[in-house]
């Protein structure tokens, strides 16, 4: 999962290579990354001994489980994730979709339909050497097969989506089992008759409160996360050390793999099925990789290796030491976590456990928000409302629709199951499926991205994959005992993702097939056959080249159109971030006299879109910079690219990143003095009879020499900006052709149409005044 809503900061100024910075990030990661993993001792032993095996006087079962727990934590979280998977970052970002994005760039799979060759020139695209070819024959053959086979590309996308859906399922199951297990400790401090009426309501109340507080953002309570988790880790490790010396100092011998053999030999099928409970000891391990973008690789390695890992091992050993001397427990609580806690401190430990469970659940929930945002940016999930809860901390987001959906599903699981056994079976399958997906994608990364020998990739997938497949089979066998829940949730979300991705692809292909020829535009002349009035007409389109069909619809039905026309495409690219200096691709459509431009704004799948006012200013400045660059030659970063209509595109950064570029100054008459010392294109003040319009000036560097033709064009752009900007939102709808198959009709006419009508529009369009907006739709049959 990806915990993007965490309080750690990707752009934090302390994120340097100094030891102080690394240790600070390691401290912060404890409260964000390890909340889920650190609370696993609450339910591992209880879930393992639920029904499949019994705790006998020989202690072979408890020592065998301890041996499995020790080696599972050592092989998967420590060896696989900390020392191998963390290196497979996507320019500093981690997670399932980061691996998929990395593979798409290296194998040139084209994750999005409107990808361009120009996108491969982005610095983030080249940073990881994605333009290099595999140095071995097998790697080259694999890359070629992926690029040519549509079936393999769909299979790879399907694999990434399955992992993503299981992460979303984990966002439902982890809060339920974590909070329920923490609250279950109340059983030891009250009568059983009272407890059964208290446990469920208290759990539901905590869950409702947890989800209700999400809109405040994690930065509101983030500063207390790390101390809570550190206190919890110190608590369970101290109790573990106490139990080891108090009850069985020789329990460390159980870490020998021989005890795993004895365990399986004695318990046989029951022992194999109990692995579904043991695997919960590594739940939350994926967060180390998913949250890599907020911390550094070294800080996460230090925090886990020197703090989390030894604390968990001591906690599990302490529980095993206590249980090895207590075989017949009087309480129905059996062998849960709290029976090994000294009675004098159970109440404070219960309070700390509930707080730690809330912290772990918080991290999983915000991680679900993050991965859905990534899926939406890459065209695999309907557009949803994304609220940025912090103006200072990058990546803290809140998605209302997803939040309340998760809450309802979480409450349904808690009320429906009412025991940790079924919740553990469900959570275990979700956790191990995500790990298997990561293992499969990592084996491809080793060959295609790291350019290592294919034998090394086979060893990786065989060693870790066989280990995880054993746990996967033990979880899957409990399908009727709770494991069906993540499968059902995944199928629902997978259907939504597939329908949206397929419908989006069909819609874009229809836009491309119906776009207007440039010859038609040229035949109309500079006036386009209508009256051109002052102002900027901003036409939103998904096309990155050519003239959208919706534009011809305007020209044939409207008596007048704007003096300046801009085809605006806001697109995501398969990199986590696009630098502001590479934000825009700007070019002309047709001759200069037509005053028609194309602007492509590029964002990474984890970038934050700017507010509409700043975006408009950057957009106008990018067009002005294009006009200036055509007269100055190579003063800006110019990149020529041949598209379908032979458009020449120029890479231009935002105003803040282009210090030597043109600036836009908008002011009222009384604010004129602010720009009095600058070089201006014009000093004209344009007033309307009703009110004073804002004055617009382009401020250019003093060293610039702009000829009269460029000055005249800049003057027209300035006047158009003063007159105002109108937004034309073109909507294209797709319907299945007559005679299409039944499934195609269902997917396009009902599934995709339902998702489209209930999804959000373009993010920037939400802040546009309705008086300045014109929406027009067209229907395509596919």
UniProtKB/TrEMBL annotation:
Name of the protein in question: Potassium transporter
Keyword annotations: Ion transport, Membrane, Potassium, Potassium transport, Transmembrane, Transmembrane helix, Transport
GO molecular function, one term: potassium ion transmembrane transporter activity
Spans traversing the lipid bilayer: 62-83, 156-177, 223-245, 270-290, 302-322, 349-372, 393-417, 423-448, 455-477, 483-500
InterPro entries (alphabetical): K+_transporter, K_trans_C, K_trans_N
Broad class of where this protein is predominantly found: membrane
Signal peptide from the UniProt entry: none
Source species of the chain: Linum tenue
Location of the protein in the cell: Cell membrane; Membrane
Gene Ontology CC terms: plasma membrane
Protein's membrane topology: Multi-pass membrane protein
Location of the K+ potassium transporter integral membrane domain: 25-522
Domain of life per record: Eukaryota
Protein family (similarity comment): Belongs to the HAK/KUP transporter (TC 2.A.72.3) family.
Pfam family, one: K_trans_C
Residue ranges constituting the K+ potassium transporter C-terminal domain according to the UniProt record: 535-781
Key word Transmembrane helix present: yes
Role according to the record: Potassium transporter.
